[in-house]
Each structure stands twice: as structure tokens, then as C-alpha cells.
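Review box. Two proteins, two foldings.
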Amino acid sequence: MKDLLNKNISFAYNEALELIVSMGMIACEEQMIALAEDYKLETDPLAISFHEEARARLSPHTLRELQFFFEYNFLHKGLDFAFYESICSSMEPQSAEEWMLRLGHSPAERIVAEMVYGVYHDKMDELLQGMDWEVVKKDIPLLLEIVKKTRPQKEVAEAHAPLLECLAHPEETKVRCIQLIQQFYHDAFSLWKDRLRVESERAAIRYEESFHANPERFIRDHTGTEPTTYDIPTIFHISLMAQVGNDHLVFYTGTSWIGWVIFGIHNDRVFGPAADREKTELFLKAFSDKRRLDILLLLRERPHYGQELAIKLSITPSAVNYHANFLFFLNLLEMKRVEHRMYYHLDIEKLRELLAVTTRVMLDEDY
């Protein structure tokens, strides 16, 4: 397994990816602040400075366009999925300018079709009704008709009308996307890109050293996934703007599968060893919501994938993702892939450890 991980996993800074992550962070700023409070995380001062300067420099029109394409639910890709697909379907890191030029050569129909996938990726069966996505995504009039008839998950319900607008006007949508990205790059990102690269590459050295010291432990401790998940070439992009978290993106290039992981620069604050008191506070907070306890109890019985949990709990897959993050931050869960599904697995031993730590902290017992 060590040899396989060393072969498949690499670390590389992808400026184009950081550009799109930063656009999403600005558009979803209120959501990110709320998530940071929930997870007891302090926002990086550098990220705060970037946010403040970007908002001061961007025009009202650019901010409205940013919200149109990005502001729906940060944990559920939407219209912005088209940009991630365009970037991450290549194994080679790209500068922002290189990628913007490449996007300019992409067919408008492909861009809007990938927007549909971003909004409906967790309702594709209902959307397609047995039709082949590879065929349907090339037929924009058909896509428009079936999107009209199918409501997306409630987290991205507000993306429905903008998506219909994009499908009705593909060429105009492409022009708007490119103008928005170029304007954001010129007014905000270009002024910070060198510093963001330096900070991310500095952190990448630290994480890469930790990975090579013990690949399997690194994957389990810092990503919450089973090492066997990484059976395809995967590049870790260390993202200052993402702060924490692991966004695992997998794409088929036409000849092979490739993966990118948007890896938060401060993941070691959350996924590495933490103070017992902080663990206890987050452990108790994690179960202040009945749905998180329900998830734990279901996973105690057997592993489940996201849609299964959503159906059993009568919530959406994005809500499952949100609640599961509390358990990930406590290292209670890990993900394992079976074919193309990612299953949540409960670590019973870790649960016992956290219960023991909580008992010691609450009762002020000696170690």
C-alpha cells in the first residue's frame, strides 16, 4: 500500500484552482464564517485580509455576477462545477492565465452542461429518468426541458432559475463567465497570487514530508479516507483560501481517471492531534444535533453511502455532508470507495477513545 500511495499521490500548487476556490469563498463568505464558528476554527488573518481587500476593490456588478455563479451552498457544487471540471480534468497544474485562455476555447454547450451536473449530481437519476448522461449533456434543448421539470436539492434550490437562464443562453453565459473570472483575477486575485502561492507551497513541503514519512497514516489522519481510495493518480493542492477540509474531485479524461484534492492549509489544526479539552468541546457539540447522533447510530450498524443516510434521515445529501464533517473533525469517520460510491465508516475504537477523554475532562480525572 505504501508503494501504491507514493506512486499515485503527488503535491502541486494549481493557481487556477486556487482562483476558483477564492471566488467561491468570497461569494459564500457568510456561510464560511458560520461554518468556522460551528467547527471552532479561527479564520487565517491572511485570508481575512484577502476577503476585505477583494470586497473593497470589486465593483457591485462583479459582486452580483460572483453571487450569480457561486453563491448557493458551499458544500454543494452548483454552477461553479463547470469551472472545477475544466481545471481538474487535467493532471497538469495551470496558471490562472493559462486556464482562462483554455476556458475561452471550451464550447459554451459543455460549460452549461457541466453546470447542470454540478446542481443535480445528487439527483441525476431523477433528472435523467433512465437516459444516458453522456448523450443528454450534448443536447442543450433537451437539458433545458428536463431541468425545467426537476427541482434540485433544497440547498441549491436558488440555483434553479439561474441554471435555466444559462441553458437558454449558452453563448452569453460563456461570455459572462469569462468576463467575471478575468475581472476577479485582475481586481483581486492577481494582487495576491504570489503570496498565496508562497504560503501554499510552504505548507505543501510540510504536508509532503509528513505524507512520505507514513503515507497510510497521513491519508487516514488528514483526509478521513481509506488509503485504498487512492488507486488512481491524485494531486493534492494545498489551499490557503479553503482553510480546512478535503474536497476530493475525480474526473474521467476519456482515457483514464484522475483525482484532485483541495486540501486545506490548516488541516493539521483539525485532523491532527488536538488538545483534550478542545476535543471534548467539539465532541459534545457534535451530538447537540440529533441528526448527528442518528448518523453515528446508523453507521454503528454498517457503513452507508451519503444517499442512503439522506433517505433514512429524511435530509439531503448535502446536509449529510455538513453533519458528517463534525464527525470527520473528530476522526470518528473515514471514507472508503466501493466502485464509484464513497461509504462512511465509523471508527468504533476512536469513539471509545473520545468517550474516555470526555469522561476524564468532565470529571477532572488524572490520566
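Next protein.
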Amino acid sequence: MNCRHCGHALTLPLVDLGSAPPSNAYLEAAALASPEAWYPLRVMVCQHCWLAQTEDFARADALFDANYAYFSSFSSSWLAHARDYVAAMSQRFALDRHSLVVEVAANDGYLLQYVQADAVPCYGIEPTASTAAAAREKGLEIIEEFFGVALATRLAASGRQADLIAANNVLAHVPDINDFVAGFAVLLKPHGVATFEFPHLLSLLRDCQFDTIYHEHFSYLSLHALQSVFAAAGLQVFDVETLPTHGGSLRVYVQRIAGGVQQLQPAVEAALQQELAAGLCTAATYQDFQRRADKVKNDFLQFLLQARQQGRTVMAYGAAAKGNTLLNYAGVRPDLLAAVVDRNPAKQGKYLPGSRIAILPESALPQQRPDYVVLLPWNLKTELMAQLAYIRDWGGQFVVAVPELELL
């Protein structure tokens, strides 16, 4: 395989997680009698541009279909993050009723609802029918297509260029990263700004966040790699922020190289130096990750086996994609994990892909009173421990497996 950005041959492995079905391909009960499609899950690193990327086995339209079940609005902390983002961008870039804001990967309208509430004109681009329908129920205009140069060109030709384009947690999800990013250069107004948020490769390596690796994530991103991608599209990074979201993310601000008016901020060079100091442009940095991932997996599996031997019951919270990576890599099945609960009605009554563990509503926790509740979306553990604090009433304990096994 060649690098999906620069085309150089890939020879440096990061991790091999065996094989798994797509992490968001939740199963209906009737599907339990049928086989699932499993794909190899391996990540390679380009030693030319340092883009980390999954090997190509599954197509995007098979991963992000009409039944896509990830809805952003079910996390209160993520809603607060979106609200704060809109307030900060409105102030920094003086957005008003004469501006136009576009969100690429608008999901269920979790962010644009705050833009709309400020009376700033906006529309979203969202290819998955399920989340697009939820956004429209909020009164938002949604274009239900995959984004790239072709769509951006049509929109620009119809006078729909943006002052601000938001792209939160989507850049990793696109198979053709060059075409996707080039679309932003087309859709931006000459002085427009785009922001991208994404989990930082530095955090993934530092905290062994291998469970954030799944087929829907085609790329694992650093500022070094993205500078090359943006430059090839005629875009310049002028600012960057470090965020705590998703276990450690970056927010990158870009503008057109030709015509951009924003001043280059010192944070860009500081972030690049931090990545260099951490060895993100050195092959040796990536060579111990497999061993560390295996230790996390083995420690978690040992905990589940010991709990079963002791007659303790274990359930999980959060039918998250990252949880599916962990469970499938560890080979966990319902004998070791009784069920997973989730607030999202679109997931309730279904089964996790691969492990085929039942997804139940949150009411199952006080009914079944498990001894342990594994928080699969460990990045939300503070929010979830407050939400589920009642498990302490029967002596229940919280557990996280990443970055290391911990009973809380």
C-alpha cells in the first residue's frame, strides 16, 4: 500500500489489531443468525510525510451508511464543547447575520444549533441519512452528501462560500484526505477560515489509545503530517490549540495561502516542536506500540476472567466505537461481559458488532446491579461517573481499561 497523501510506499507498522467488523455496524436481533463482514485492522506510518493510516480494506460508503448510529448530542460535555466553540469563533471572527457558517460532518446538528440560535446563517453537510434527519428536525439545512472538491465547487458556484467552516472529528474519517481538504480551499471565501478538530496522534501514542483505531478512522493525525496535506491544497495553518476532548485533541485553524489575512501565531511552531521532541518524525517512536497495546488488552482480559471466577457480574457503559475495538481485539463475548448500556435509542435493542453483546437502556443498571461497570468511552469518564454515581449504592465499581486498567 502507498500513502494516501504523498503516495510513498508504506513500510513502517504501528499496530496490528487482527480483524474486526466496522465499529459502528450495530446488529439487529435478526442479524445474529447471519455472518458479519470482518476486515483486517492494521495501521502503517508513512516515513515521508508521517501520516499514520489504516490499510485499505473497507469502503467509506460501507462504513457510513443510512443506519449510522453515532449521534453527537447524547454527550452533555460534547454539547458544552460545541456551544463554547460557537461563542469563541463568533467573537474571534466577528460572525453576524451577514456571515455564513458551514459545518462539514454536521452529524445531528449538535453544533449548528448554537450558530442558528445566534442568528448567524448556516448550513451543514452530512452524508449519513440517520443523523442528517435528526439535524433537520432542529430546523437546520443539511446537504446529504460526502464532501470533497466536486461538492465544494457546486456550492461555491451557487454563491455559498463560507466565512467559517467547522470540521470536528471528521478529518480522520475520510479515505481521500487530499480531495477532502482541497474542498475547503474551494468553499472558503478569500478571507475565510476553517477549523479542524481531531484526536492528536501524540496522545494516541503517549497513552496507548489503540482503541481509537477502527476502520472508520482512515488516518491518525499530527500537525506535521497535516501541514503537508494543507499546503498541497493551498491552505496554511495559522493557529493551533490543544484540547482535552477525545483523550487529547488539536484544533487547527487554516486559511488560504493566497489571500488569507490572519496572522501566524507562535502556537503553531510550539506544537511542531512538541511533536519533534516526542519523536513523531522518528521511526523508533512507533516500534513499541504493539507491545503496549497487547499489555492493555491482556490486563483487561485478565480482569474479566478473574471477575467471572469470583462470581462477579460485569456490564459496560457506552456502545462506543472505541469500545468495539477493545472488545473485539480482546475476544470478549457475552460470557465475560453481560451487556452494555447506552442512552442512545438508535443503539438500544441491538448488538455490538463482532462481540454480539446486547445493548440495553441505562435502566438495566439499577435492575441488574452489576458489581463492575466498564466505561468504554473512557475519555468521558468524569461525565459518566457523575451520571452513573448511583451504582455506588449497591457497592458497584467503575472500571476503565485504557490507558491502563483502573478500578475507580
